[in-house]
Amino acid sequence: MGNWSSTTFEYVFHLITLEKNQITLGPDVTVPCFLSPGSPHGAMDMEIRWFKETDCVCLYKKRQVIKGKDYENRVSLLPNELKRGNVSLTLQPFTKSDNGDYMCQVTNGTRTEEITVRVEKQSFLYRYKHMVFKATAGVLVILLVLAAIGAKVAVEIAMVVTAAPAAAAAVASRITFLKVNRIWHTEERLKMEGSAVLAETLACLAEKVTNVEKKHKDQLAALKMELYEKTWQLQKDVENLKKDQSLYSELHTV
What we know:
The protein has 254 residues and is of the alpha+beta class. It is 44% helix and 27% strand. The chain has helices at residues 79-82, 129-148, 152-171, 186-253, and strands at 3-4, 11-12, 14-16, 20-24, 29-31, 34-36, 47-52, 55-61, 64-67, 75-76, 89-91, 100-108, 111-123, 173-179.
């Protein structure tokens, strides 16, 4: 269970990460971050903010996730894990430009804790690429000689050999997570706050636009229903008028 301050009855916690190297076969990366010790209620009612350098990646507030301006549809927290104190960030997919320092900031009441994690993803074959491409070049020389004398299959093999290292690098990657004691300066923190405010503002505007569209959609549906009912009543009135005219004609003829 968590620790509690004897003077304020406030939950006292720290943030930890898993410093590790791992091999991944997919494009997604989860930056690990956890509350320590575990909170009895997890992080469900806390405020969580993730930054990549000074850009707001996403923030969690009032049990809603707001994504940063350049991270829509590619970042997420783990809703089922928040109650366990897991505030890790997932990027889908993780691109080369995503390498860098990530700062996680968690606020509970008046207490705020933060941690900086350096994330680096590189090709699994990066360390050996000079060996791989040197060997590949040697094989290609032999295959090209064969191709020159008319060995058609050599050309096909050369294409496969050329593509193989790139394909392998795209599939297998090495990811490094490292906790760093980076000092974020005042100017950087001001940029972070501005980025977070921008993300919240854009989310608020998007919600208002959605509500207006929904309201107009409901109003349009109501107008269509009213038009349908009036059209139906008008058709009935026309039919009744035709019947009255027919009856009047019959009576007048008699």
